[in-house]
Amino acid sequence: MGTAFTWCLAIRDVCAELKVLPGTSFEINGQLISDHADVVEHPTLKEILAAFARAEDAVQRRDIDALMAFYATGYNYHGLKQSDVRRVWGEVFTHYRRISSTHVFTKLRVSGTGSQTRAEMTCTGGLYGTPKESGSRVTLDSWFREVHYLAKENGAWRFLGNAGNAPRTAPFTSAPHHPLF
User: Fold this and answer.
1) Which pTM does this prediction carry?
2) Is the separation of the CB atoms in 22 and 103 below 8 Å?
3) Where are the beta strands (DSSP E) in the chain?
4) Contact indicator for 24, 105 with CB cutoff of 8 Å
C-alpha cells in the first residue's frame, strides 16, 4: 500500500498536519475515486484541505476573525453556535501557546452543486497546545472517526459541525474545548 499524503504546515515552530491515508475512499456526487494519487490530486479535495490550512494559519497568527471565517453561518454542534466557538477560541488563545492540530482523513464524500455543495470527512485527530504557565504540551481536544461536515458558502469551504462517537475518556490533561475543528 502507498504512503499517506501529508500536508505539513510548518508555521512558527509548530507543524499542523493534514493527512489523507492510502485506501481513503472519496465519493463525489456518486462517483467513487479509489486511486490514492487521484484522490489527493482532486481539485475539490485540494480546496477543502486549503480551507483547513487557512484555519490553521489563523490559529498560528491568533487571528480570531480570520479563524471564524472557517465556520459556516449555520455552524451548529450540539447547540453551540459561532459565538460559542469564538468564545472558546478566545479562551484557548488566552491560556495556550504553540497551538497545532492534526487531521487524518479516512473517508470523504462530497455531494451537491453550487450553494448546496456539502462535504463529509471522516477524521481522527487532535488539537494541542502548551499552557502559558508550564512547558508541557497537552491535548486540548481529540476526535476519533468524527465526521466533519463542511459546506461551500460564498465560494469557500466552511465548517458546519461534527458528528461521531467521542471517546468515553480523555487524558487528564485535556481541556473541555471540543469542538473546534
Assistant:
1) 0.84
2) no
3) 5-11, 14-28, 31-33, 96-111, 118-131, 138-153, 156-163
4) yes
